[in-house]
Specification:
Elements lengths: L3 E5 L4 H12 L3 E6 L7 H10 L6 E3 L5 H10 L4 E4 L6 H6 L1 H21 L3 E8 L23 H19 L4 E8 L1 E3 L18 H10 L5 E4 L11 E2 L1 E3 H16 L7 E6 L5 E2 H12 L5 E4 L14 H6 L8 H19 L3
Parallel strand pairs: 1-2, 1-4, 2-3, 4-5, 5-6, 6-11, 7-10, 8-13
Antiparallel strand pairs: 9-12
The structure holds uridine-5'-diphosphate-4-deoxy-4-fluoro-alpha-D-galactose (UFG).
Length: 346
């Protein structure tokens, strides 16, 4: 019998790519989303890529405890991957109550519903933001977490702790995996799903593609006076399809009883640091487009350099990032061009 995976926030950027990989790996999935930060574009793309017109979609808010319980009662959920959360760092500084309420309550409701059902395998989508400005790079899972620089980052840390505590108290009924993502970028090679930021993008790659397509005038590179080889920040950019495949490995590990501990942590990155300028240059070169950019002051809250030591995920989960930065940036550009063809330059 097929296992069923609930994908909360499954219509968004990461959730839609994970949905495709889960289906292709033979899982049944249930997508649940409140569409607060996305539309139906990616869900439709998932159906098209997988040729599956029957994927269950539940339009609901995980902050609603009874709706969450009803969802767990309706489907035979073997594992849940929890993406449903707000994710804009700057907005979280302006609206901390909204962030804490949404991101904590939705996860608590998932855990309560899982507990009430007698247990579940829970995969939480965490972030390298929990490491703050690390004292040493690359970071391993043992690298100490730092105080969060934003309410958004703090919700990731708090949800990590909440899951650890729930697993501990559950006597084996709840198992957990925390995946700490580095910088997910790119799009599915079909160009049918990708990142769809609302308004002005906060993140680098959507800003690059929107500038290249003419939606934005100029990319600001935030800071060229960092203590790095070219003065711009270093990050670990991970292809979204590679990242999605890590979720399949993690879900299988939980379902196959392969976990070494009841709650595990994995870094999901490439181990390859790239500067902002290197990324911009690679984008121009691989796509044959000229990007209008200028150097601007540093952005508040940015760390100088962070990249993953992915050895634990490589060795214990059998997962490894495989895509080159060129492939990833080609896919990101193909997706932006697809959006232009479909919707014009709105
Ligand atoms: N950058 C620019 N110009 C832009 C946007 C970004 O120069 O217009 C630079 C940033 O200063 C940074 C790099 O590009 O040096 C990457 O910035 P992103 O905003 O794309 O990503 P961050 O590393 O800041 O943040 C990402 C996720 C967060 C997560 C964090 C964890 O977006 O959700 O990684 O490290 F918390």
């Amino acid at each position: 019998m097929k296992n069923t995976v609930l994908v909360s926030g499954g219509a968004g950027f990461i959730g839609s790519h994970v949905s495709v990989e889960l289906i292709e790996a033979g899982f049944d999935i249930v997508v649940a989303d409140n569409f607060s930060n996305c539309d139906l574009t990616c869900f439709k793309g998932v159906k098209k890529i997988t040729g599956r017109d029957d994927i269950p979609l539940e339009v609901m808010d995980f902050c609603d405890a009874s709706a969450t319980k009803a969802l767990f009662a309706k489907y035979p959920i073997d594992a849940v991957i929890h993406f449903a959360a707000f994710k804009a760092v700057g907005e979280s500084v302006q609206e901390p109550v909204m962030y804490y309420k949404n991101n904590l309550l939705s996860f608590l409701n998932v855990l309560e519903a899982a507990q009430d059902k007698g247990g579940c395998n829970v995969l939480f989508s965490s972030s390298a933001t929990v490491y703050g400005e690390p004292d040493k790079v690359p970071v391993t899972e043992e690298t100490p977490r730092k105080p969060a620089a934003s309410p958004y980052g703090n919700t990731k840390k708090m949800c990590e702790d909440i899951l650890q505590d729930c697993v501990k108290a559950s006597n084996g009924a709840i198992k957990g995996i925390l995946l700490r993502y580095f910088n997910p970028i790119g799009a599915h090679p079909s160009a049918l799903i990708g990142e769809l930021p609302r308004g002005v993008p906060n993140n680098l790659v959507p800003f690059i593609t929107q500038t290249a397509v003419g939606k934005r005038e100029c990319l600001n590179i935030f800071g060229n006076d960092y203590p790095t080889p070219d003065g711009t920040c270093l990050r670990d950019y991970i292809d979204i399809v590679d990242l999605a495949k890590a979720h399949v490995c993690a879900v299988k590990r939980m379902l196959d009883g392969k976990m070494a501990q009841p709650c595990e942590v994995f870094n999901i990155g490439t181990g390859r640091p790239l500067s902002v300028l290197e990324l911009v240059n690679a984008f121009e070169k691989v796509n044959g487009v000229k990007l209008n950019y200028r150097f601007a002051p540093r952005r508040e809250g940015d760390v100088t350099a962070i990249w993953a030591d992915p050895a634990k995920a490589n060795e214990q989960m059998g997962w490894k990032a495989t895509r080159s930065i060129e492939e990833t940036l080609k896919a990101a550009w193909a997706w932006e061009c697809h959006l232009k063809t479909t919707y014009g330059n709105e």
